[in-house]
Task: structure prediction
Amino acid sequence: MDLKEAFRIADDAIKNFKNLIIIGSCSVKYFGRATSKIAEGERIIIIKEDGSFLVHQNKKLAAINYQPPKSRISCELADDVLILKAANRRTGEQLEVRLKEVKFAYAFRLKDDESIRVFATEKDLAKDLMNKLDVIEEGLKPIKEESSVLRGFIDILAEDKNGSLVVIEVKRRTATLDAVSQLKRYVEEVRKRKDKPVRGILCAPSITPNAKTYLEREGFKFSKIDYDATTQSDWIKSVENKQKALEEFF
Amino acid sequence: MDLKEAFRIADDAIKNFKNLIIIGSCSVKYFGRATSKIAEGERIIIIKEDGSFLVHQNKKLAAINYQPPKSRISCELADDVLILKAANRRTGEQLEVRLKEVKFAYAFRLKDDESIRVFATEKDLAKDLMNKLDVIEEGLKPIKEESSVLRGFIDILAEDKNGSLVVIEVKRRTATLDAVSQLKRYVEEVRKRKDKPVRGILCAPSITPNAKTYLEREGFKFSKIDYDATTQSDWIKSVENKQKALEEFF
DNA sequence: GCGATCAGCGGCACG
DNA sequence: CGTGCCGTTGATCGC
Result:
């Protein structure tokens, strides 16, 4: 495609806040929180009507360069180069795409008022677990009245049958060293504020060996949750329902 | 665009491992690590030749749904619906896009042998800092011979003028509670293995108040580094170089 | 706006 | 492969 024609399309899209897709051969430079460069190659460029800017290669899931929404987009046609820029005034970040060849350019509007809904997040798990603390340990009772200072970011605060406080950190996937560090921080925080025994429980579908070692050295406990079977919200209640749910879903 | 025509383009792209972009009105469902749904709306769908799959709305930087490279892609034309699927055999993840209307479909190949190079990463900073430990504290000397057990993930291990070991954690942006937890874990690890005094220093451009409090309570020290993303090898306090570097870069 | 944390995190390097 | 951790992380929610 003629660069002039591509420029016309890009310019129209940018001036009128349309979405824009350009496919062509370009080099890309970025300066901001870090700095990056990539030599010429054929890539996909997407500019959204909210000022998001994406550069994709033909492989990998992630964009190689990008700028967030509300970037100030501009385009100019220099000698045999179509230059697209995204700049963030506040942070001073700059992204520059220099197109030597354009295979394809398309400006368009999209009508979309929907939002995605995601289920089985960590918050979902914690919420469900809250009502089933028995699966972790008999006699555990959730403490709902948060003394506001205690409950900062602790997933679940509970009391065991001996009256000890129990800090429960919930992870939706394999617990790592980070998770133990996090639990430890919370437990220490509660110990500082409450003159009672405080225990820590890490609740996850699995745990890495190093994390397990660290956890036990700190005197904490691991509790495996099979969240397919026990804890998923009303979405999938049990293993035997899973297949059915799946079939309904798809 | 006719759905039949869109199907032909999609089918050709998938069978021949081309890249594919489709713009149209669709609903999307996902089941895998989590579960998600979104009702009909006009979106951008990108399928790459490596089996990556992306669904973008007209706002925000991030894709709302996706599948990683090597997904098994398929398409079918049902009654008035063009269905695109991406499945991961190993993990059992499934993504389904149901297109009711297609504005645009395009299959294409891309030639791109380049890789992006990123500068001013945390590793870069740590490497540079290693040779300028004086900016942190006078008399600090890096310990290069790693006793192999010690050096796991510690950014910099050093010795101060009193012969104490110093664990240095480097962050390229504002240090948070997480960073302190991480440093603490490393310091404890070294203390366990070495019968010497061990100190901890957190090195970052800034630190949040909570993190500072936590850090000091643990007896660690914060060291502010003023780095500059433009000047990769000589980044400390080079304001006058910044403009020059910027000009060269762009 | 900053701060803290989750994410279907993705990607990378190392064992 | 899993483990650990960085990332121009992004997105969200609370203050």
